[in-house]
Amino acid sequence: MFDFTFHNPTRIIFGKDKENQIGQELKQAGLSRVLFVYGRDSIKRSGLYERVTQSLKDNNIAWMEHAGVSSNPVLSHTRAGVALAKEAGVDGLLAVGGGSVLDEAKAIAVGALAPDDVWNYFIGKEVTAALPVCTVLTIAATGSEMNGNAVITNEETQQKYNISSSHVYPRFSILNPALTRTVPPDYSAYSAVDAIAHVIEGYFTGQGVGLQNRLVETIVKTVMATTEVILARPDDYDARAEFMWGATLALNGLTKSGIGPHAFPNHMIEHALSAIYNIPHGAGLAIVMPAWMRWFAPRRPAIFERFAHRIFGLRSGDDGIEALERWFVAIKAPTRLAEAGIPAGDIEKIAANAAGLAAVWGIAQEYPKEVIADILRLAV
Ligand code: NZQ
Ligand code: ZN
To answer: Does one domain contain both 56 and 101?
Structure first.
């Protein structure tokens, strides 16, 4: 096992009705005036907005609202949030929504204390401070509720880049699986693909020993099994709960600890797809992953054989990849570029975009533009 430091400061408050404690929790965290960040209309339709604001009132928490965060949050809206946070002099951020809302809130938290434009921190400047971020999660997928990442798209340059900093781990995140009951089937499928992607990137590219490999396999199997239940019976609380906690564990540092150097090539390529075409992140990953696996498997055949065997009871690595792709098809996630309306003629453009991120992530040597284009051609 490789050496590592594991420190995850986010407190998780998990279970039924826990969102009703939000005001109290914010008060205990020392906050009294927050920027309340949310998405389009899902929290109003579900009644969550009413419950959250009631709890804020009951606990004398003042708030300003920054609504309308889009799925795949954009820089212009983030900048507007930064301006509002500065003007209102808030002492923290309250994010209620999915990964997009949480990520934009994290970015605003950085921008609010920064002397310069928030985008600088997405293109390499080190984050040295951020306002506290507290969250109520409504869709389980990204792991943003318990990690230090935030992904924003600069819509002018079509760059979907991230910050990764200990300063933006949420202070606490409230996870009530029942809040995810209204997530539509397509997003339930995309969320499953995303959670699987988060664990398999390190599994295939790192050097995990038995413990980490088994952790990953357990998360993959849990995500698959619970997704099938969720799609068949959306009201199944226990399946929602297992899925939700599984998705959190998939990207909170646990499975990566001790695996040594590893990379996130599927995410690097997917971010180009959602930057250019604004497709859901999990949908893009369902297209990229089988293609990348077919390209990468000959380099690490043993771990692909292990995956095939442990997840699907199959013998060959190729059969395992095919089984995973078939499962994506079964849950109605797209697995080919055309299914997401992306023409094969755009492959060079997508590869050039992804190569920019590969450079930022330090994996340009293994993934030059030509290699990325080769991988994308396997998704035609
Ligand atoms: O805007 P509203 O109305 O809230 O609707 C949202 C949105 O349309 C809806 N939704 C959320 N909760 C719901 C619900 N609908 C019904 N009932 C509910 N309970 O679902 C849609 C998708 O929400 P979004 O937040 O975009 O989904 P997700 O959580 O998958 O987040 C995706 C974003 O996170 C980034 C992705 O790139 C993408 O931008 N990621 C963030 C990561 C991180 N911070 O660590 C890692 C990931 O790899 C990923 O890159
Ligand atoms: Zn992801």
So the answer is: yes
